[in-house]
Amino acid sequence: METRKKAINYLVRLALQKLLGLLCYLAGTGFLISLAGGIYFGVLTVTTMICGVII
Q1: At 31, is the secondary structure helix, strand, or coil?
Q2: How many domains is the chain partitioned into structurally?
Q3: Pick from 14, 11, 39, 46: nearest CA to 25
Q4: For the segment 1-53, what is each residue's pLDDT rounded down to a tens digit?
Q5: Is 30 helix (H, G, I), strand (E, B) or coil?
Q6: DSSP reduced 3-state for 1
Q7: 0.90 cut: is pTM over it?
Q8: CB neighbour list of residue 22: distance below 8 Å, 6 or more residues apart
Q9: Which domain holds residue 15?
Q10: Is 14 within 8 Å of 49 (Cβ atoms)?
């Protein structure tokens, strides 16, 4: 049970880091996100979450 709680906490922290990364990205581009940038960020986020669950 403790391991499951740690895993959930890890995934929540990971998701928050990705959201902060998105905010930094949007701020750096002047809040103009291109389609390619959005796809890249989405794929990166999903892949990181999947790897976090597997590992």
Answers
A1: coil
A2: 1
A3: 39
A4: 688 888 888 888 888 888 878 777 776 776 656 777 777 777 877 887 787 77
A5: coil
A6: coil
A7: no
A8: 41
A9: 2-54
A10: yes
